[in-house]
Specification:
Layout lengths: L1 H5 L12 H6 L3 H4 L3 H8 L21 H10 L2 E5 L9 E4 L1 H10 L2
Helix pairs in contact: 4-5
């Protein structure tokens, strides 16, 4: 039991699962997108229906962590399932995502 009390609290600073919300008191959506998220979301601004890319400008697959964080914040939403590649998240930009991008460029 004494060993358990020596462990640090699980927070964002220690890589725990509580995330930034517990550490800072704000949700990721209220802070706005990170630079990587804003770059990905911004690529949907000029696409039909706000379709977000599966690959970055260099041809590398967009990190699933980035995609899932944007979905969780409400900036992107799954659009449809890809029957050939069911593990790929085909998403589109939401109105909240557009608003977040406007706020991040101020």
């Amino acid at each position: 039991m004494a060993e358990a009390s020596k462990r640090p609290a699980r927070t964002a600073a220690t890589g725990g699962k509580r995330g930034d919300k517990a550490a800072s008191g704000t949700s990721p959506a209220s802070r706005g997108p990170s630079p990587a998220q804003a770059l990905w979301l911004g690529r949907g601004l000029d696409q039909a229906g706000g379709k977000l890319p599966l690959f970055d400008a260099e041809g590398r697959r967009v990190a699933e962590k980035t995609i899932r964080a944007c979905i969780a914040a409400g900036w992107a939403e799954p659009w449809f399932s890809n029957p050939i590649k069911p593990d790929w998240l085909v998403c589109r930009l939401t109105d909240a995502g557009r608003a977040a991008l406007e706020g991040s460029h101020r």
